[in-house]
Amino acid sequence: MTKPILKPGRKNPQIRTVHPTLPPAYRSRKALGFTVAAAEGRFCLQRCDDCGKLTYPAREACPACLSMNLRWQDVDPAGQLIAETTIRTSTNSYFRERTPWRTGTVMLDAGVSVLAHIHGDVTPQGRVRMIARTDKSGKGVMMALPEKEVENMADDKQLRELTCDPKHRRVLITDGRSDVGQAMARAMVNAGAEIVFVGLAEEWRGFPGQAAMTEIANVEIVPLDVTNTTSVQECAGEIGGKVDILINTAQHTRPGGIMGRRDVVTSRDEMEVNYFGLMRLMQGFGPGMKARGADGVNSACAWVNLLSVYALSNKPDFGSTSASQAAALSLAQCFRAEMAGSGVKVVNAYHGPLEDEWHQPLPPPKVSPNRLAREVTGALQQGLEDIAIGEVAVDVRGRWQEDAGVLEKELTQIEGM
Amino acid sequence: MSVLTELAASLASGAVKTVDLTHTLDPDFPVMILPPEFGQCARFRVEEVSRYDERGPGWYWRNFSCGEHTGTHFDAPIHWISGRDLPNATVDAIPVSAFVGPVCVIDCAGEAAEDEDYLLEVETIEAWEAIHGEIPAGAWVLMRTDWSKRSGAEYLNMREDGAHSPGPSAQTIRFLVETRDILGFGTETVGTDAGQGAHLSPPYPAHYILHGAGKLGLQCLANLDQLPATGAILICPPLKIKHGSGSPLRVMALVEE
User: Given CA atoms A43, A49, A54, A57 in this order, what sign does their dihedral have?
Assistant: First the structure.
């Protein structure tokens, strides 16, 4: 059984904050396919399209038939630990700081043996369940977990390096005015966050749920308006040094495309929140979080962007909002690059239409605020970086991955013609 | 001594003082809230361009943005549909003489403190005139409510049925426009109309009647408690925005000690 992580004490102000170091970061283009899958939490291996052989580690060509047609495919994550070693010294700074470190060889039921990090509760020669996750370098790695859930499993120190568990961490929800923001605050408190800061813009106008939210234990309301640079800078100045997880719930969604609108006023509002708001948050909170990626039990660990799945491909009846979401996605990609090396994961959570006033005339399925909050919490606990929430998002994202061109043609064709 | 020389001497001696009737343009200052499906009034926002740094080593300057009706602001007749066909109805076309003139201040602070939906009625104007004399044609009329001393959520005072703040009744505005031929009407609240003005007849009577008659509006005023009932001079030139429906502005008054 893993020893539960205790709530960390207050930081000693005389000790220098540990600078983030990284496990090996380079992967070949072919090998990055594993990282893509790991970011989604899928356990994949390359399979040869021509002869069907499973391959490990990542290769350019099939070792059996020399075919170049290797494709990453989900495989059964079950297996058995057949050999292990505990690393007690390393020339790599990251591992050197974290020894002892358990690694081993797992024989997958699929017939391939792989090298993996080993959870502390895996018994020698025991049955295991493999996971693929991104590590502090943002690159895919394998870890063997006990086949069945054990107590305090998430607190294993090696596993916690791969996850962004809110337990004992301090979370900032950027906008508490919406149902999504409020559901997210409740979910973070329930997941064991030490404190949940909830941003509130324009305190001069109230909103439904305000009283209930202020009553949640561990919730602290902070003035924060993502459309106001000064407000973001002031908030970051106040609490930026103790935000371990930031969840950007500020979103401006309006129906409408281009010619149905007579001006760019609404589109500008969308960009002001969805794009510039995100950029202000990144400029305000990014540097502090980047510096605290290895700051102990409650290190900075995750930045969550809630993105409409139509950031991937425009949905014309919400065309302008889709465009601002595409801008936000592009910015998130840049942010990932700038945060690389910090160990802080930039999580993109794509969602379909929400159960809110702007999607009210749309038919189900829609994503309720509680479901969105639950799935984001789960993604943090599991250490995922790319998730799709709700049936629509799963479907659209899947089709985008399959063929972005076909998806675009489908979304933009005239219905019933 | 000419009038202006005398004024200059009075300003220098302090016999005439200048009172600022303006709120600071602050990103957190409330603006009018409309149903979300309508276009909204832009908040006041500032972005720094440089501050003695690599973006401009020797100078500090910023870009600001806002709506024509953000902060302490001026309403031109064209702001309302009733004034849309009037001549010289935009801020750039209104004769500048309209921006300096006598001002009458009706003190409703006590009534507004007791009744947040207080409506200024004609009888109150008549009672005021019995003491201070008739409101002269071409005067600005300001409704003092001390609402400017409120802050945060207390200012708009929004509830589920909308904002609750004082303002003039339709009859009062009609009286001021048709019988007294005022130049404009100003308030300390976010609009010239009461918070519940949408439910009066006509809806938003101050906007509808004032602007329909080519009259002007001022709102989000402050420090009206520092003005005498009569005798002050109001100075309120809006920005000269091409075809502007209004403008944030610095409003001042000259007051004799």
Answer: negative
What range does the domain containing B10 cover?
3-28+68-256
| Contact in structure between B76 and B69 (CB atoms under 8 Å) | no
Interface contact flag, A229 B47, Cβ < 8 Å = yes
Q: E-assigned strands of B76-220?
A: 100-107, 119-120, 140-144, 158-159, 162-163, 167-168, 184-187, 216-219
pLDDT digits (tens, 9 = 90+) for B95-143: 999 999 999 999 999 999 999 999 999 999 999 999 999 999 999 999 9
Rounded distance between C-alpha atoms, residue A254 and residue A266, angstroms? 8
User: Under an 8 A CB cutoff, do B43 and A227 touch?
Assistant: yes
Q: Which two tokens stand for residue B92?
A: 């750039």
Q: Please answer yes or no on whether A227 and B33 come within 8 Å at the CB atom.
A: no
As a whole number, mean pLDDT of residues A121-143 equals 97
Chain A nearest-CA distance from B147, in A, is 14
Q: How many other C-beta atoms lie within 10 A of the C-beta of residue B230? A: 16
Q: Hey, what amino acid is at A65?
A: C
Mean pLDDT of A258-268: 94
User: Is the CB of residue A151 less than 8 Å away from at least one CB of chain B?
Assistant: no
Spatial separation of the C-alpha atoms in residues A43 and A45, rounded to whole Å? 7
Residues whose CB falls within 8 Å of the CB of residue A416, separated by 6 or more in sequence, listed in order: none
DSSP classification of residue A284: H
| Closest CA of chain B from A325, distance in Å | 20
**Which pLDDT belongs to residue A417?**
56
SS3 A233: helix
Query: Residue B56 domain-assigned?
Result: no
Most B CBs within 10 A among A177, A205, A265, A357, hence the mutation to make, goes to A205
B168 in a structural domain: yes
> How many domains are there within chain B?
1
Q: Which SS3 state, helix, strand or coil, does residue B126 take?
A: helix
Mean pLDDT of A171-181: 96
Q: Is B79 a catalytic residue?
A: yes
Residue B125 lies in a domain: yes
What are the backbone angles phi and psi of residue A257, rounded to the nearest 5°?
Answer: -110, -120
The matching CATH number, chosen from 3.40.50.720, 3.40.605.10, 3.40.630.30, 3.40.1160.10, for A170-412 is: 3.40.50.720
How many other CB atoms are there within 10 angstroms of residue B6's CB atom?
Answer: 12
Three-state DSSP at A7 gives coil
- Residue A45 pLDDT > 90, yes or no? yes
- What is the pairing mode between strands B246-248 and B73-75? antiparallel
CATH 3.40.50.720 occupies which residues in chain A?
A: 170-412
Which of the residues B79, B132, B164, B207 is marked catalytic? B79
Task: Say if A234 is an interface residue toward chain B (CB within 8 Å).
Answer: no
- Tell me the count of A-B CB pairs closer than 8 A: 40
Interface membership of A414 toward B (CB under 8 Å)? no
Q: In angstroms, how far is CA B173 from the centroid of its own chain?
A: 15
Is B27–A206 a contact, with Cβ atoms under 8 angstroms apart?
A: no
Q: Is residue B97 part of a domain?
A: yes
Q: For residue B235, how many other CB atoms are within 10 A of its CB?
A: 17
pLDDT value at residue A209:
86
Q: Do residues B254 and B231 touch, judged by C-beta distance below 8 A?
A: no
Q: Is the pTM of this model over 0.90?
A: yes
Interface of A with B in 266-285 (CB under 8 A): 266, 269
